[in-house]
Amino acid sequence: MYSSSSVATRFVLISILAVVATQLLLMRTVSSLNMTNAYLNHKCLVSQGKYKPGSSYEENLTLIISIIASEDGFVHGYSNFEDPELVSVTFQCRGDSFGSKCRSCYATAVAGLRRRCPRYKGAIIWYDQCVLEIISTNNTEGKIDKDNKVCMSNPKKMNVDSFREKWMTFLDNLVGRTFKSRYMYAAGDTRFGTKKLYGMVQCRNVLEPVYKSCQQCLRNLAMQFQDCWNGKQGARVLGTSCNFRFELYPFVSNKSGPN
Ligand SMILES: *[C@@H]1O[C@H](CO)[C@@H](O)[C@H](O)[C@H]1NC(C)=O
Ligand SMILES: *[C@@H]1O[C@H](CO)[C@@H](O)[C@H](O)[C@H]1NC(C)=O
Ligand SMILES: *[C@@H]1O[C@H](CO)[C@@H](O)[C@H](O)[C@H]1NC(C)=O
Ligand SMILES: *[C@@H]1O[C@H](CO)[C@@H](O)[C@H](O)[C@H]1NC(C)=O
Question: Which residues form the Gnk2-homologous domain (predicted)?
Answer without folding.
Answer: 39-139, 145-251
